[in-house]
Write a structure and sequence with these properties.
Elements lengths: L9 H4 L3 H13 L4 H7 L4 H4 L3 E2 L7 E2 L16 H36 L10 H10 L9 H17 L13 H10 L6 H11 L8 H31 L5 E5 L9 E6 L3 H12 L1 H9 L5 E6 H11 L21 E4 L8 H7 L4 E3 L19 H17 L12 E5 L3 H13 L3 H8 L5 E5 L11 H12 L2 E6 H9 L13 H10 L4 E5 L4 H14 L11 E5 L5 H13 L2 E4 L10 H7 L10 E3 L3 H19 L12 H6 L1
Parallel strand pairs: 4-5, 4-6, 6-7, 9-10, 9-12, 10-11, 12-13, 13-14
Antiparallel strand pairs: 1-2, 3-8
Helix pairs in contact: 5-7, 5-9, 5-10, 5-22, 6-7, 6-10, 9-10, 10-21, 10-22, 11-13, 11-15, 18-24
The chain binds FE(4)-NI(1)-S(5) cluster.
Length: 649
């Protein structure tokens, strides 16, 4: 740990007790973590405002909030153009991440249909038929394989379609879709949208922030209703659609007497394959022979979230804890695939003698071992990793210190399960949800999602915000690292209804559900879009997603993927609040456009605050505004049906 001037107090860095313990230990061990680096590296003030343009070599041109608003770059680009261009490229990068992931899952699906991939099969044919039907593919009396092939061909358009509208927009409420058509932002294939976004943000092309914003929305929609949605749906078809399952969270899931294998990343394939390897009797015997009680498979970040909601695999923590978990000394192997993998993990792993393995050709780390995961023989990779882990267990040299904290939560609330949960097998629908919103027991719905970021106290804003929302009768849907924060805080159990307002608590108690529903990884934000569409379709809450008493928030975001998600929620009609920082200069035209004007086009709009209580206030005010517009702002008195009413009926 070289140059750090003054270390911040651990209690100012995180509210996660396990991570706090490990930061303290790492400091004692002389190992630097991202929290310390964040302290040592002040963010560039111009970059933080997105007021720097380096799209050509006449610059880089730096404008900032102190410069006069009419200061322009060498080519004449205004602050609004520069900020919109930068924003567009960030959204394009986030969209590329989700859609490339989605495409890889679709290719796996093709391999399963062709029979070239043998370790996986179609696990949820019902969902396959459902999705096919929703895209107008003939299913009646046809073989599963034929329908699957048609579905593959149709969904390939999500990525490659040059003109027209991508297939999944058939699931968008018609009024929302009409507003997109009016604005000219119905997405074509993601490749086309990302290509055009990159083109339009090059030097001397699109220099009108409003026109750029249209392409930003179109690109982001190709993510939310495209790549991400395909990723979720095909993963469900291949690995099973989640339904509620009890899961253990936090670093206490590591077991000193077991071989601990951590899978961290975003593609469910690695963790699904690892489950097969870890369950193999010969591997189990090998682990026993090495003196272990068994193999303990643990997930982290988003693939961890996806797989836990399908199989109940324990989860050790979110983005800001991935280095800290290595500090326990108890990790016998950490393997990673794509996205949110900090380069420094390899160095920290080396400090604790933990094998660290990259597995995806897209995401290697200089110096780190690479064992390719080939979907045609995935177990070749995962078996080798398990063997490495067992070998490390046998020769453990590092002292072990596992934080004991474990929380248990119920997760895996897919859109399909929510339908069933509310009405049972025969009357499953979103009607009870809508009715409870209309009668005011539930004030509204919020999606609280996204990353953790060492520049805000880990988990703090997620937990504070969600507590305040449920206290105000807002049902909270969650994905990503935010879901992990709330799971660790113990709010994903039905008992957490005790912390909810009386209306929401009553609904939760009746249904037996937690007030905070975990839906999965960040690509599973598409589940929130589908749930929102279903609420519109069910009736009584307006005609477009923008009419719903709903809001979204990513209080501790850090990734470009989060900006893509935020923009597709905004374009879909959701008021979306981001916390901690926003890459924009306040008071500019571009800022006004994103934060105010978009709402006038039947879209949502952006909001920003760095205080979770203020975020809650903003979201509640928006929800109340929508309730007022729908004429349901006054919670109706609960009317009990008496004998006279029954007779009248
Ligand atoms: Ni989402 Fe998943 Fe977490 Fe943020 Fe990273 S893990 S895709 S980007 S940090 S929520």
């Amino acid at each position: 740990m070289a140059k750090i001037k003054e270390l911040m107090k651990v209690e100012d860095l995180t509210t996660c007790e396990s991570t706090a313990q490990m930061i303290t230990k790492a400091r004692k061990d002389g190992v630097e973590l991202l929290f310390d680096r964040a302290n040592d590296m002040k963010p560039c003030p111009i970059g933080a405002l997105s007021a720097c343009c380096k799209h050509c070599s006449m610059g880089p041109c730096r404008l900032n909030s102190n410069a006069p608003y009419d200061r322009v770059g060498v080519c004449g680009a205004t602050a609004d153009t520069i900020m919109a261009r930068n924003f567009g490229r960030m959204v394009a990068a986030g969209t590329a991440a989700h859609t490339d992931h989605g495409m890889a899952i679709l290719e796996l699906f093709k391999g399963v249909i062709d029979g070239t991939v043998k370790d996986f099969k179609i696990k949820d044919p019902l969902k396959l038929y459902e999705i096919a039907k929703s895209l107008d593919i003939e299913t009646e009396g046809r073989e599963l394989k034929d329908v699957a092939l048609d579905l593959y061909r149709e969904l390939e358009l999500t990525f490659s379609q040059v003109n027209g509208e991508i297939p999944m927009v058939k699931r968008v409420p018609i009024k929302t879709l009409e507003s997109w058509r009016k604005e000219g932002i119905v997405p074509r294939g993601a490749m086309r949208e990302i290509m055009e976004m990159m083109h339009r943000t090059a030097i001397g092309v699109d220099q009108d922030y409003e026109n750029l914003t249209k392409q930003i929305s179109r690109t982001a929609l190709a993510d939310g209703w495209g790549g991400s949605m395909v990723s979720t749906d095909i993963s469900d078809i291949l690995f099973g659609t989640p339904s509620p399952v009890e899961v253990k969270f936090d670093m206490g899931v590591l077991k000193e007497d077991h071989v601990n294998v951590i899978v961290h990343g975003h593609d469910p394939l690695l963790l699904e394959a690892m489950m097969i390897s870890a369950a193999d009797p010969s591997m189990k015997k090998f682990a026993k022979d090495a003196g272990a009680k068994g193999i303990n498979l643990v997930g982290m970040c988003c693939s961890g979230l996806e797989v836990l909601s399908r199989h109940g695999v324990p989860h050790a923590g979110n983005f800001s804890s991935t280095e800290a978990v290595l500090v326990t000394g108890a990790v016998d192997a950490m393997c990673v695939d794509i996205q949110c993998i900090k380069q420094d993990l390899f160095r920290v792993a080396e400090c604790y003698d933990t094998p660290f393995i990259t597995t995806n050709y897209r995401a290697k780390i200089e110096g780190a071992p690479y064992i390719p995961l080939d979907e045609h023989e995935p177990l070749k990779c995962t078996d080798e990793i398990v063997i490495k882990a067992i070998t490390r267990f046998k020769t453990r040299k590092m002292p072990i210190q596992i934080p004991h904290k474990v929380s248990t939560g119920i997760h895996g609330f897919s859109y399909e399960y929510i339908t069933y949960m509310l009405g049972g097998s025969f009357r499953g629908s979103y009607t009870p949800l809508n009715e409870n919103i209309i009668n005011g027991r539930i004030r509204g719905v919020a999606g609280v999602v996204g990353c953790t970021n060492p520049r805000s106290k880990q988990d703090f804003s997620h937990v504070e915000l969600v507590k305040e929302l449920i206290r105000n009768d807002v049902l909270v849907l969650q994905t990503g690292c935010s879901q992990v924060a709330l799971a660790k805080a113990g709010l994903t159990v039905p008992g957490a209804a005790a912390m909810a307002g009386p209306g929401l608590a009553e609904v939760c108690e009746t249904v037996g559900m937690p007030p905070v529903l975990g839906l999965g990884s960040c690509v599973d934000n598409s589940r929130i879009l589908i749930a929102a569409s279903e609420m519109v379709r069910t009736g009584g809450l307006g005609n477009s997603i923008a009419d719903l008493p709903a809001a979204g928030c990513a209080p501790e975001w850090m990734s470009e993927k989060a900006l893509a998600i935020g923009q597709y929620f905004v374009a879909s009609g959701v008021y979306t609040v981001f916390g901690h920082t926003f890459p924009i200069i306040q008071g500019t035209k571009f800022q006004k456009h994103l934060f105010e004007e978009l709402e006038g086009k039947d879209f949502g709009k952006w909001g920003f605050s760095d205080d979770p209580h203020e975020m809650a206030r903003m979201m509640l005010a928006h929800i109340d505004k929508k309730r007022e517009a729908l004429g349901i702002n006054k919670a109706r008195e609960r009317v009990l049906v008496g004998m006279d009413d029954r007779r009248a009926l």
